[in-house]
């Protein structure tokens, strides 16, 4: 799997010839004169399977064409939609549980993000199952940073459509939290804030204890970027409003083993934590 941050992309030597084929086929697929009924004889399950196999190409130019072509096929050939979703799911399962290697994960997630956006409500059980068994476990793979932006978008799209999935998303992040990888932990913190912005109070009540146990450890991290990023959750107005109702319960979770009455906390500590986390510590009584 090519890491664009560490390795130069591999460009196909025959690309000038391949590009002509891809460009011709793309213009053909997007044409308003395309007869879908006639093309059913040629755009088949076998054809789509071979198209999906090409997503593992190391050439980003080829994957970009494939992404656009498959997306247009999904839009125009309704009878292939379920198969395309199932095939993408299978590709992800193989990536997560077997190989952890596939060059086209980011592009497939981009297609999936658009598909999720068009899901009707309420969400079908098969879609929720895919969210729980593929998208959430995908956070555990080593090359997460290569496609995290696209994955995070898919996760938040699901939570936006069904707020009850926020519990699965947050608990999933807690399960796969990268305690020894600071760059990956920053990605998790960024995604966690996006999910919390979509979380309703009833779901927040379910997850706040494990959530703030983890955030408390992040605040105490020796890595200053991790600690700073965790503290900035309190600068989010909506998240602060969620925290306000459970402040008395959250403070002991973040700082276990301490006395949490304002009068028992060191004044300097109160000033510092109140500066970074407004609303977490109530003002000490005079």
Question: Would you mind describing this structure in some detail?
Answer:
The chain starts with 14 loop residues before the first helix and ends in a 10-residue tail after the last helix. It is 64% helix and 0% strand. The radius of gyration is 23 Å and the shape is elongated. The protein has 286 residues and is mainly α. It has 15 helices and no strands.
In short:
With 286 residues, the protein is mainly α. The protein has helices at residues 15-30, 36-39, 45-53, 60-76, 81-99, 105-117, 125-135, 148-161, 165-175, 182-196, 201-219, 224-231, 237-244, 247-254, 267-276.
| Model regions low in confidence, pLDDT < 50 over at least 5 residues | 259-266
Helix content: 55-70%
Largest sheet: number of strands, sense, barrel closure: none
Distance between the termini: 61 Å
Computed Rg:
23 Å
Q: What fraction strand?
A: under 5%
Average pLDDT rating: 88
What is the number of helical segments per DSSP (H or I, 4+ residues)? 15
């Amino acid at each position: 799997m090519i890491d664009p941050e560490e390795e130069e992309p591999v460009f196909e030597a025959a690309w000038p010839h391949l590009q002509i084929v891809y460009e011709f086929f793309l213009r053909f697929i997007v044409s308003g004169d395309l007869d879908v009924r006639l093309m059913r004889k040629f755009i088949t399950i076998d054809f789509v399977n071979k198209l999906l196999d090409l997503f593992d190409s190391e050439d980003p130019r080829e994957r970009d064409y494939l992404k656009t072509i498959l997306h247009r096929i999904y839009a125009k050939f309704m009878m292939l939609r379920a198969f395309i979703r199932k095939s993408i799911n299978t590709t992800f399962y193989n990536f997560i549980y077997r190989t952890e290697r596939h060059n086209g994960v980011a592009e497939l997630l981009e297609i999936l993000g658009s598909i999720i956006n068009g899901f009707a409500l309420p969400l079908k059980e098969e879609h929720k199952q895919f969210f729980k068994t593929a998208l959430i476990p995908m956070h555990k793979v080593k090359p997460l940073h290569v496609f995290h932006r696209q994955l995070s978008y898919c996760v938040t799209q699901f939570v936006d459509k069904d707020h009850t999935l926020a519990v699965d998303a947050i608990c999933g992040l807690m399960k796969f939290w990268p305690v020894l990888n600071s760059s990956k932990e920053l990605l998790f913190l960024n995604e966690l804030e996006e999910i919390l912005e979509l979380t309703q109070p009833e779901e927040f009540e379910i997850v706040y204890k494990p959530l703030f146990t983890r955030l408390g450890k992040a605040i105490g991290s020796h890595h200053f970027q991790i600690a700073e990023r965790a503290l900035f959750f309190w600068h989010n107005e909506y998240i602060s409003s969620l925290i306000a109702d459970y402040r008395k319960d959250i403070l002991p979770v973040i700082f276990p083993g301490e006395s949490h009455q304002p009068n028992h906390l060191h004044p300097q500590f109160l000033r510092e934590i109140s500066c970074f986390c407004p609303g977490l510590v109530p003002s000490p009584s005079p």
